[in-house]
Amino acid sequence: MYGILMRQQTERISLMKESEIKEIIQAQRLFYRSQQTKPLGFRLSQLKQLETLLRDHEEVLCEALEKDLGKHSSESYMTEIGLLYHNLRAAQRSLKRWSRPKKVATPLFLMPARSYITSSPYGCTLILSAYNYPLLLSLDPLIGAIAGGNVALVGLSEYTPHVNQVLFEASPKYFSRDYLHFFESNKEHNTRMLQERFDKLFFTGSTTVGQIVLEAASQYLTPVTLELGGKSPALVTAQADLNLAAERIIWGKLLNMGQTCIAPDYCLVDESIRDEFISLLIAKIVSLYGENSQASADYGRIVNQRHLGRLQAILEKDADQIIFGGTVDQKDLFIEPTLIQGTLTSDLGAMKEEIFGPLLPVLSYHHLEDALGYIEEQEAPLAFYPFSKSKPEIQQIIDRLQFGGATINDTILHLSNSRLPFGGVGHSGMGHYHGRYSFEAFTHQRSVLERTNYFPLKLMYAPYTHVKDKWIRRFLK
C-alpha cells in the first residue's frame, strides 16, 4: 500500500503542464534578476540550508535508498550522504576564497592598469541527474549551482520514486520554489525542459541521452557539462599484487550492484596470471557477500525490470563463457555476481555496451602492448584502473592512454577527493565538477582590465606615424 501511495503522489507531482514549466522558469529568472542570489552571505546560508535538509532527513533518505536500490544504510552514507556532507562543508569553508577576484599580471604597454578575473553566475540552471546515485548526482552539482549564485531546476530520475518523494516534500520547507525546485526527470518532462532556454545545463546519464542534451543546448548556445559513462577498464599486469587487485576490483565492481558510472566495466589480465587471478576474484566475491549473495544485506538490487532484462540478455548471449555466477531472480531484481571469461578477440555480449551491473568480463592478453592497443581502440573511458607494483610501468600506461580520471592500484576512489576535478572526455563527457570545480562549472570566468582616467594610450590611436610604429613594435615583440 505504501508503494502504491508513493507512486500516486509522485505521478501527481510529475505531471507538470507546459504552462507550469514556463511559469517556474520565469519565476526563477525573475528571482535571479533581483540580485538576491549573488551576495556571499546568501549563498552560504543556502548551502547551510541544504546541509540542514540532509541532516534532518538522513534516516528517511537511507530508507528511501533501500527501497529504490536495495542499498545498505552504510553504503548509502559512504557513497552518497557522507560525501555530500563533506562537499557541503568544504564549500562553506572555501566559498569566500573561491569567489574572490583573482589578480593577474598586466603587460607593461597597458599600464597604468590592473587586471583580474571575476566569477559570475550563469543564472537559470537545469540539472538532470541519474538514478544510480540519486542523492549524490542531483545534490552534488546543486552545491556548485548554489555556491556560484545561480537558481536551479533539478530533475530527479523517475526510477527512484521514494528518494524523489522525500525531496519533493522536504525542499519547500527549506527553499523557495523561485530559487530551487525539484521535479521528476522523465522523457516527457526532459523533452519539454530542453525546449526552454537556460543559462547552464548539467546532465548526468548515458552518452546517447547526453548527445540529445547537447543538441538541444546548441539551439541557444547554452554551456553544458555532460557527465556520461562508458566502459571503464581495470588493467592487471603481471607485476600487480594479485590479491590486492582482486579485492579492490570486486569491491568497485559490486558497489551499488555494479550500477556505478565509474565501476570497473571489464578487466584485462596478463594471461600468465589469469587462472590465479580468477580464483582470487571468486574468493573475494565470497568473502564480501558470502556463498549466497542474494541473502546478503550488503548486496543491492537492480533498479527495475527493464534494466534487469537488459543484463539478463547479456548473460544469455555469453552463457558459454560464464565461469562464476549467472543466477537471476526477476522478482527480487537480483543478479548474482558474475565472471565472464574471454580474450581480446572474444565476441562477448558484455563487451558491446556499458554493462552497469554485476557482470565482470575478464579478458586475458599476451603482451601489455596488446592490452593498451585494445583500450586505445575503444572510446575514451570515464575511469581507468591500472594495477602494477612497477612505477615505470604505471607511468608508461598512464602517459599513453586517454581517460577521464584514474585510481592507480585501486578503484573508484579518485571520485572521493573533492580537490580533484571529476569528468569525462569525448564519449564519456565534457567538463568537470567536484569541490572548486563545481563552483567553476556554474560560473563564467570574466576578464576585467581596469584603466585609470589618466595617461591615455595615444600611441595606439590614429593617425599612425613612424615613431608610433617604432614604439608599438618595441612593446609587442
TrEMBL record:
PANTHER family: ALDEHYDE DEHYDROGENASE (PTHR43570), ALDEHYDE DEHYDROGENASE TYPE III, ISOFORM Q (PTHR43570:SF16)
Entry GO MF terms: aldehyde dehydrogenase (NAD+) activity
Gene Ontology BP terms: aldehyde metabolic process
Stated name of the protein: Aldehyde dehydrogenase
Assigned protein family: Belongs to the aldehyde dehydrogenase family.
Signal peptide bounds: none
Alphabetized UniProt keyword annotations: NAD, Oxidoreductase
Residues at the catalytic site: 227, 261
InterPro entries: Ald_DH/histidinol_DH, Ald_DH_C, Ald_DH_CS_CYS, Ald_DH_CS_GLU, Ald_DH_N, Aldehyde_DH_dom, Aldehyde_DH_NAD(P)
The Aldehyde dehydrogenase domain, residue ranges: 10-448
Pfam families (alphabetical): Aldedh
Highest taxon, organism lineage: Bacteria
GO cellular component, one term: cytoplasm
